[in-house]
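Two folds, back to back.
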Amino acid sequence: MSEDEKTIFLKKKAKVDNNTYYFTSYSHYAIHETMLKDTVRTKAYEDAIMKNSATLFKDKVVLDIGCGTGVLSIFAAKAGAKKVIAVDGSEIIREARNIIDANGLSGTITCVRGMIETLLEKEELPLGPGEKVDVIVSEWMGYALFFETMLPSVMKARDAVMDRVGGTMFPNKASIHLEGASDTWLDYWDDVHGIDMTPMKHRIGTELLVEGSVEIVDKENVSTNRVELVGFDLNT
């Protein structure tokens, strides 16, 4: 095997390993329980879908990418979609199928397991000849919006099967905002069991600059106005 062939092989192996790790992590119940119990997130999707049922979902074809337990697919079906395709690359698709059946929606929602890129390449989505998708719904957002890097997969589906005239991504817009906040948690290092450990503050500050940290900030600690850094039209 030449060096070039070895390089290509290792890159392919790393990609497979990354995909395996990613989809395996989404096979565990805990991550789905956490997402479903995020009532702000789940209710926002439910309200947005149901409030747009007449204009965007009734009698439409919907593609749900990364469907998980199938909750967004079920919302779409309840909003009147005539056909919903629920796609997920992890083993949780089996539970999604059973949940959909238990709720009497298996006649509307079809579950498909696989990576969306592969399903598109092999034309394995249950779409008829020339049939397009009216709505692509997905909860692809990660920390700082793009952390999960799932959006490129969703965009490939958009470019391949979404009706470019009347179709839409859902959500169809995304933006990143910035605001400042204060916190006193670093003060812990001023006195640790009677020991001055303030040098740790500099180390923590340096590490946060390169690693970042996800925290919940109380609204009373917000110290600036919020500004939009960048906005995106996901339909284009």
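---
second:
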Amino acid sequence: MGQSLENFKETIASLSKLIAHDVTKISLMLGSPPYPDIETLKSLFSPMIPRLCLLQNTLEQTPKVGGRTLYKQYYQGVCSIVESVEEFCKQVIAFQSYPRSEGMKLLRTAQALENCDQIVNIPLKPAEIVRKKIQDETDLIRDAFEELCSVESARSDGELSDASDDGDEFEQPIPSLSSRHREILPYCLALVKVGLGMLKKLSQAIKRSGRSEKLEEVEELDKIGEMCSLVTSTVDDFVIAAEPPLSYEALKEAASELSKKYLEVLNIVPACHFSTEDDENWVQILRTAVDHNFKKIKENRCVA
């Protein structure tokens, strides 16, 4: 029988703290004379290597009940620790080549300690870790939304930037927005905003009713998290297509793909274990919003 999630996290946390202790000990010894010789350094590094190997082996034994999202989070955390410790070791090896003050400056920038701390704080419950993933995706969509808002507000109709004003004759002029482009942008913004609303409601529903007692429930949460990631990348493509110079066909294609991704998520929500009758209401509202804004984008054949 495999280990429990609690034992898994405890093992990862213990190894990470020991590795952080090793890094700290070496840094302190290199902080002031007398500096350790090469044999002493070897003895300091010797316990760190098996700990890193055990950390990787423990990762490969991640309990299946944790789900794919949890595994990916710990995989990224372990990789960050291994890579930062490797970089730290390279800095220690190069220490003799630098003036002492300059060498220690390099050592203080190592990310090993920070990465060891971060992996300890990864949520353990699948519902919590999927909600964290959804929040990360929400932040990315919000950035894309704000970028598109700046396109709408920063350039007045018919206005072109003058490269010669900045004294750079090689700088390319910033494309202006046509009046038709301005007409279609509100619907583009509204379509992106659907994603923000959808992810917010999903996070609330999972916080309220998300469970992970059964493997099927964990797999369902994983699927939602993965679909949200696909939504984010599709939002990025759509925002790029909505910026000037505008190609209507490219915009229409990107809007169609984004609408499909939204509907794929919305169509499975009512059947999810965390869904209630209240969730069906916002699902229908967002479906209507997707259809309305996509229809407006299709109908408005703007030109750049």
